[in-house]
Amino acid sequence: MIKKIMIATLSVLVLGSCNKFLDRNSLVGLSEGDFWKSEQDAVTGINAIYNANREFTNSIVIYGMMDDFTDISYQSFATGLTTGVFPANASFYSTSWGIFYKGIYRANTALKKVPEIQMNESVKNRTLGEAAFFRGYFYFKLWDYFGGVPLYDYPMNVDESFKPRNTEKEVYAFIVKDMTDAYALLPGSYDAANKGRITKWAALAMRGKAHLWAKEYEKAAADFKELMEKSDRTLVGDYHTLFRVAGNNNSEVIFDVQYVAQQGNGLATDRNYGNARGATTGSQRTRPTPKLVNEYEMKDGTPFDFANFKNAQGTVFNPDNAADWKDEASVRKLFENRDPRLQKGIVVPWSTFNGKGGIDYLYRFPVVTSDPAAYVPVWTNGSYAWRKFVETGSVYTLQDNMPQNFPLIRLADVMLMYAEAKNESAGVPDQSVYDAVDAVRIRAGMPRLPAGLNKEQMRERIRHERMVELCGEGQRYSDIRRWRIARDVVDGVWMTEFTGVKIRQRGFPDNYYLWPIPQSERDVNPNLTQNPGW
After folding, report:
1. Is the pLDDT of residue 77 over 80?
2. What string of DSSP letters covers 93-155?
3. pTM score of the predicted model
């Protein structure tokens, strides 16, 4: 599979690893010497682009995931983007910028060199399609986070790397062209030896996503509709399986990052999402918020409300009273008959977690650290924990190197993006909007949406569905920024335990809608103007 091929690639190549885009080492890499002569050189060079993508995924999972910068999860240790005080010279920004431009340089090199190689025509088309896809993808990430950035369609030398920023509209058009080219060149599927490589469906999904971000709703809906109708992708029956090693390479994934259980080649999900009772003793660096948990509907589709539940004394359940959480019977009722995705994705009090030794540990509250059969979270004052991306039992023991593929686009995401684009482009949501959202809800075990929703009501339903379906996957950070609601739902809000205990106040000033152009890059390239407010 592609993940094994990429590991072999890293063992034979000396690749520029500096994070700064303008560092000379990152601008040479695979372009010199006797390389780019054979078909194997072409494939090896393309694999290096996949590794640049892995590098970014590794960094955001280590940090705790992009959702930590939103209202649905939070970073237990670091503050930074969660509190609104990250400086423009923070390494997080420059590291991301450097990784994206490293990948762009490698893609540009491949697009220049591969056409000159005498090789199998279908493999040549595939490698060119992969390079075009990744160049467009890295520019999409830059566009999403930084806005307009310099566009390079050639492998630039150091003295050619001082262009000013292109407009956001120009970057969007560049992405669309790359994804259109990739769609024409790439196959729809692969044999087992190449499973995990980019398909034409990933290119189509990313083109639709670029259209959606640009508010070109009819174009976005058309791309997503084509993917839903013509691709071989189908929803997986069990939601929880999607986020376990057993679900790798499933029928729903459209674009993911692949990993294996080898030191240095796995993913740190179990450390950062995991808990103290897991086989790898995770640090619970990222945690779901009470806001997210309370968003999960009742099984009949009605909103959850604490006012509908009683505590042990028979009065209204008060989530800010720690004593109310001590009564097992009362608390269990809070989580019964809820959207099944809740307990498939999150560990809640008085539920069980299958951890070390295959034991089902019970999450008692208050936490009983002395009980060997009790679930013990890292944070014991009233913390929800992720079940999503956390392996159960004791099969895997490499804390920072889980063989868990990380999904970047899956069919449920595409269906919800289609529903959003179609709803925004129409006066009244048509049946296809209902069908797309309902397919995601029905897979989860939830009822269909009620009929007769207007455009604004449907918009809120779609946004709710994206919140609970895609939580922990890093999608909400981009969603709330492109919807321009980030400041409303994040700024000034307190991160709390489920008992109401305050941890840290969040911050999202207006300038956070775009990241700052890294100061280290502006120091080298004076043509790079800064984003407003930084």
Report:
1. no
2. HHHHHHHHHHHHHHHHHHHHHGGGS---HHHHHHHHHHHHHHHHHHHHHHHHHHSS-----S-
3. 0.93
